[in-house]
Amino acid sequence: MDYATAAYYTGKGQLTRAVPFLRSAVAGLGGGYTRNTAWYRARLAQTLFDTNEVEEACHEMMGVLDACNGVSSEKLRRRLHAFERIAVRADVPAARDTVERIRETTRGGDR
Fold first, then answer.
1. What phi and psi values does residue 12 have, to the nearest 5 degrees?
2. What is the pTM for the complete model shown?
3. What is the pLDDT of residues 88-106, one digit of tens each?
4. Cα-Cα-Cα-Cα dihedral of 37, 25, 54, 82, to 10°?
5. Per-residue exposure over 52-62, b if at least 16 CB sit within 10 Å of its own CB, e if not
6. CA 90, CA 52: separation in Å to the nearest integer?
7. Is the dihedral of CA 54, 91, 11, 16 positive or negative?
8. Cα–Cα distance, 62 to 32 (Å, whole number)
9. How far apart are the first and last CA of the chain?
10. Engineering a disulfide at 2: which of 20, 24, 88, 109 sits with its beta carbon 3.0 to 4.6 angstroms away?
11. Torsion from C-alpha of 23, 27, 33, 35, nearest 10 degrees
């Protein structure tokens, strides 16, 4: 329900209102990192970045990268590359580190 509510607010361009619902959706997924958990956390990272919470977004994305140990899901790979494309423009150390990690993690895949 939280993820659906976040999607609604995101679709309406109300990203700040979507963030708490995404956080709640991620918190409700439990301790295991499955592909779906990584997907939701990557969505949270993207939304945080879009609301100018760059440091927190990068921290969240690093958690995704730590958990996924390589990316076999093409859908998740696309989401990581979308984050990379926006993060590369941010002039902060956390963004540069995250971009490098995405590239290392997805090396060998299509962009």
1. -85, 0
2. 0.84
3. 999 899 999 999 999 998 8
4. 50
5. ebbebbbebbb
6. 10
7. positive
8. 16
9. 32
10. 24
11. -50
Per-residue tokens: 21: 């619902």
Q: State the residue for tokens 């494309």.
A: 85
Only one residue has tokens 């290392």, namely 104
Distance CA 18, CA 99 (A): 24
Q: Read off the tokens for 35.
A: 């592909």
pLDDT score of 33: 56
Sequence letter at residue 68: C
Distances in whole angstroms, Cα of residue 11 to Cα of each of 36, 47, 78, 79: 20, 12, 19, 17
Q: What is the pLDDT of residue 66?
A: 84
Cβ atoms of 41 and 30 within 8 Å: the answer is no
Q: Which two tokens stand for residue 57?
A: 């977004």
How far apart are the C-alpha atoms of 52 and 37, rounded to whole Å? 23
25 residue type, one letter: A
110 alpha carbon, distance to own chain's centre: 18
